[in-house]
Sequence to fold (186 residues):
Amino acid sequence: MFKTNAYFDDKVLSIAFENQEGKATVGVMAPGEYTFETTSVEYMTVVSGEMQVQLSGSNDWVVYKPFETFKVEANTSFNLKVTTDSSYKCIYK
Amino acid sequence: MFKTNAYFDDKVLSIAFENQEGKATVGVMAPGEYTFETTSVEYMTVVSGEMQVQLSGSNDWVVYKPFETFKVEANTSFNLKVTTDSSYKCIYK
Fold:
C-alpha cells in the first residue's frame, strides 16, 4: 500500500505518504555523506539521530537535531553528513 | 540494509534502525483501527498526522499530534485509531 524508495545502495530508505501536510516521506539514513537534488521545496525534519546539512551555495554545515526542520528550495541540491542511523520526515511543497 | 515490516494487510509499514536512542522504527499507518501488542516498553511519537490512542485497561481515547509522545508498558496492548495517513517513531526500551 505504501511505496518505498531506496537510494545510495540502500543506505537511505523512505516510505511515501500523503495527508493534510501534503506529500511527504519518512525515512532512515545510514551513516554516510549524501547529495540530494530537489524538484520541489522540501521541509526536512530530523526525527531521530542528527544531520549535518550544507545547502547549495553555502560553505557552512549546520547541525539539525530531532524535531528541528530546515527548508530546501526547489531545483537545487543539498549535502548531508550523517554519523549515526538517523530518521527524518520530508514534506514536499 | 534497513529492514521493513508490514502489518495489517500492508496498512502499516515500518523501517527499523538503531542509534543512541536505542532500537527504533519509523513508519506510516493508513487510516484504520489497529491493536498492537508490546514485548518491550515503547515510546511512540507522532511524526505526521494524528493518532487516537487507548491504552490497555483504559476507557479513554487520547489524541496525539506531531511530536507528542506516549509510553506503552511492556507485554500489554494498545488500540489506535488513525483517520489520515500518519507517521510515527517508536523507540523500544
